[in-house]
Amino acid sequence: MKVTECFSREEIQDLCQRSNLHAWFAFLVSWGIIVFAFWLVAFWPNPLTVLVALMLLGGRQLGLAALMHECGHGSLFKTRALNQSVGKWLAAAPVFYRIDDYMKNHLKHHAKIGSREDPDLSRYERYPVSASSFRRKIIRDLTGRTTWNYFRIVFNANKIFYVDEQNKKRFSVRQLVVKFHAPIIANIAMIIILTAFANPWLYLLWLTSYFSCYMVFSRIRNLAEHAVVPELFNDDPVMNTRTTIPSWWERLTFAPNSVCYHLEHHLMPSVPKYRLAHFHNELKARGFLDKADIADEYFEVVRKLVVKPEVQAA
User: Which residues lie across from 306 on neighbouring strands?
Assistant: First the structure.
C-alpha cells in the first residue's frame, strides 16, 4: 500500500504546507544554542563548560546540516529563493558544505535507496560490526581522522589537490576560493563576530567540535537511518529505513531538527521537518507503521549495530 492511499488530497496538502515562520524559528533555535555555547565558555572557561559547549556545538552543526537538507528539498521555506539563499549561507556554509553538491548526491540516494546503486550504501551496508570495529570508528571520529578524510575526498573531487605535468602534487588556492567561497566567507564572518566580542579564540571550539563531536553524532544519526534495517535491499521505505524516537538530550545531539523521522521523510520528502512528528503520529494511527522499525532511542540502535561476541564466534 502506498502512503498516498492513506491520506486524502487535502490532508497531503496540509502535511506539505510550508511556513516561513516555522523555518525561521528553526534557524533561530539552532543559532541561539550556538551563541549560548560560545557564551558559556566565554563567561565560565573551565573543562566542564568546554565539554558541554563542544557537545552542544556538535549537535547544532548536525542541526545546520539537517536544515541544509530541508532547504535542499525545498521543503523548509515557502519560496525556492529563500530555501537556496538561507540554506546556502546560514546552514551549509558554516559547516563547510556546498548545498548543490550535497543535494546532487542526496537526490540519487532517494532514487536508489534499497538497491546496490544507492551512493550512500557503503556507509551502512556492512553493519552490524564487532564492538572493536565500532569503537575504532568512533575513535577516528573523535580524533579528527574522519573529518580529514572527508576534506581529502572533497578536495580531490573538486581538484583542490591535483597532479601537475611533472607528477607533483599541487594545491590550488584559486580552485579552493572559487568552489568554497561560501564556507570560507561564513567562517571568516564567524571569526570577525567573535573578535568583535573580544573572544576570537572561541572559534577553536567550532573547529574542535567539527573535528570530533559532530562526526560522532553524524555517524550515529546516519547509521540509525538505514543500518541493520529489516530489508536493506527492498525498495519499500518501511523495510529499508528506520525512524528513531529520541529523548530530549538526543534531540540536542544525534537528532536535531526532527532528523530522526527518516522513514517519514523517505515516504514523503516534501513534508517539512516541523510537520514530520504529526505525519509520524498519523501514519502510526492508520496502521501504516505496523511493520516498520521504530526505535525508542539511539542507544537501542547502537546495540543493533554491534555484533555480540557469541554471534561472531558462531
Answer: 129
